[in-house]
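Try it yourself: sequence plus fe (ii) ion, in.
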Amino acid sequence: MPTRNAALQDLLLSVQEALADRPLGPEAAAAIDKIYGALAAPGPSGPSKARRLPVCAHLPGALQTARAHSAPIARIADAFAAIEPSLFWAPRAAGGLHASASWAEGHANATIIGPGGLEDRADLLVGVSLLAPHVRYPDHNHGPEEVYLVLSPGRFQHGASGWFEPGIGGTLYNEPSIKHAMASDDAPLFALWCLWAATDGSRA
Ligand SMILES: [Fe+2]
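Structure, out:
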């Protein structure tokens, strides 16, 4: 059976504890239960390739903002910083409606667990999105349901909702195939997402 890198395990545990502290709705709570149930068994190691993109220059500042929020979020930021040098940052494969002109160069995603991630598996996805300031991510949707743990300022929208700001440590749940988007204002947006029943990568 594969083993899990201690730093990755610490990140997963810190996220699980932060989520346990939140008033998750029943659908999000059920999705997290399924994801963490599956994560009890580590997946096989993924390809050992790592890459940063220019937008990653916003990451240290975003992590500092997260660390200043609270001890549980600081623990996540520290655990993420420990594994980040192993991640492969990439732009989203497909665009979509309403993306800002700044989006293409102004965002990157990294899969932590899932296809091409540190654990290469197809049953779920854990990853992060980073947006430079003043970037509007395109409208998009995907089959897997999704729970976000937001680690920075920034706005989100899903379905017929208006824009809302979960705040650092806030969460949101995207039901399967719901249209959703996110946008940064003066600060970078940094958020972690977990998708259940993922079938391929780059879904955030
Ligand atoms: Fe998404």
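One thing you can check immediately is this: The first strand starts at residue 89 and ends at 90.
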